[in-house]
Write a structure and sequence with these properties.
- This protein is of the alpha/beta class.
- It has 15 helices and eleven strands.
- The chain has a four-stranded parallel sheet with strand order 6-5-8-9, sandwiched between helices. The protein has a three-stranded parallel sheet with strand order 7-11-10. A two-stranded antiparallel ribbon has the order 1-4.
- Strand 8, helix 9 and strand 9 (about 205) form a beta-alpha-beta unit.
- The longest helix has 16 residues, at about 115-130.
- Residues about 375-383 have low confidence and may be disordered.
């Protein structure tokens, strides 16, 4: 059991159904001692295994204990709230949710969408004079890791711009000082990987279920709290960046600002669609410039692995669209600190199992006869 990685198996709960093995899009789950274990080097933290496990044996690393430590400390703690909150906390106003978070101990609440606005503005400026070729978005950490690990030849095409979350954390540090702590709250498991990689900017990443756990344990019901006059997003409310959690939202915000009308904008949601569109891709036809918005979750972040899915996906999208308003004219978006980043290839080739390992795996699932062991048809390995 590896609790250091964002996704792990509770072996005592695993019923050996192997549903997670069948549904993992990158085959990052290995049967060990009769249980399905996540292989961190191969995993992209998409959360498929967490969603499909019928007995909840696949779990997400819980950060509530660390959150309590941060909130009880001497340094101010700011929440970076994902823009999908508007669909996740239905019937709760922004002011109520902000008040509830302050009652937990947060100094202030800011929208991750402010970081998205910085990213879109930077990309729009670069697209104004972009050379021809393929550009892949860096906004979704799961999609980025998928490219780096499984389509490494395209890693150099990922735009060298920080994700909206990291850009937002930079903005918060620039605005409120270096001696602060930041905690992301949203539907994404992969943000925990971003927290591990950028601890100097992002102290912790929590999922919506973890936030609800904190609310329950502290007896806070966001629907029942009474906001105060100063319960508003800081340093300001987001505008176009609030469209990021739905597919096409990032492209909308970039196209709105760039003067380059020759760019083709493509949105790919779902890892299998990203692989289908980009696998084996060489150079684009001469003169073509394509920007690809990549989203690991079908429909976007509103349908993330740690979001509630109790309403049709179209309604989830409409809630975001009705909340996120494009300004009448593009606005200048910038922060004092840089928001560049790099995403080098990180290809991982798992070792091919030998015959003895294959036979051991067969025995672990009840295939014990010599015929079972010798018949390796369909296993994908030569005998």
């Amino acid at each position: 059991m590896n609790h250091s990685y964002p996704v792990y198996t509770v072996e005592a709960e695993c019923q050996d159904c192997y549903k997670c093995v069948r549904h993992c899009p990158v085959k990052a789950i290995q049967v060990r001692d009769g249980h399905a274990a996540v292989i961190p080097e191969m995993c992209v933290a998409c959360g498929n295994c967490v969603e499909v496990c019928p007995v909840k044996a696949k779990q997400v690393r819980n950060g509530t204990g660390r959150a309590r430590q941060l909130l009880a400390g001497d340094l101010p703690v700011y929440a970076s709230l994902a823009p999908s909150w508007v669909s996740e906390f239905r019937g709760v106003s922004a002011a109520q949710l902000i008040r509830a978070l302050k009652e937990l101990g947060f100094t202030g609440v800011s929208e991750t969408a402010l970081g998205a606005q910085l990213v879109s503005a930077k990309l729009a400026r670069e697209l104004d004079t972009a050379p021809e070729g393929l550009l892949l978005s860096s906004a979704c950490p799961t999609s980025v890791d998928f490219i780096r690990k499984y389509l490494p030849g395209l890693a150099e095409n990922i735009t060298p711009v920080a994700s909206p979350l990291i850009a937002h954390c930079q903005l918060l540090h620039d605005t409120f000082g270096e001696n602060i702590r930041t905690v992301f709250i949203g539907p994404c498991i992969a943000k925990k990987n971003e927290s591990d990689r950028h601890p100097e900017l992002l102290s912790l990443a929590l999922t919506y279920p973890e936030l609800r756990q904190l609310f329950r344990e502290e007896g806070i019901d966001p629907k029942r709290v009474t906001p105060k006059a100063d319960d508003s997003f800081i340093p300001e409310s987001a505008e176009e960046g609030a469209r990021y959690p739905i597919e096409g939202g990032m492209n909308d915000t970039i196209a709105f600002q760039t003067s380059n009308r020759k760019v083709h904008y493509v949105t790919l949601s779902g890892l299998e669609n990203i692989e289908l569109a980009l696998s084996g891709l060489g150079e684009l036809p001469k003169g073509e410039t394509v920007f690809v918005e990549m989203l690991a979750c079908h429909g976007g972040c509103v349908h993330g692995p740690c979001a509630e899915h109790d309403s049709p996906g179209l309604l989830e999208r409409l809630r975001v669209l009705n909340y996120a308003k494009l300004p009448e004219h593009p606005k200048e978006r910038k922060t004092g600190g840089g928001i560049g980043d790099d995403f080098p290839a990180a290809a991982f080739e798992p070792p091919a199992p030998g015959i003895s390992e294959i036979n051991a795996a067969l025995r672990s699932i009840g295939k014990n006869s010599p015929e079972d062991e010798l018949n390796c048809d369909g296993c994908g390995y030569d005998t």
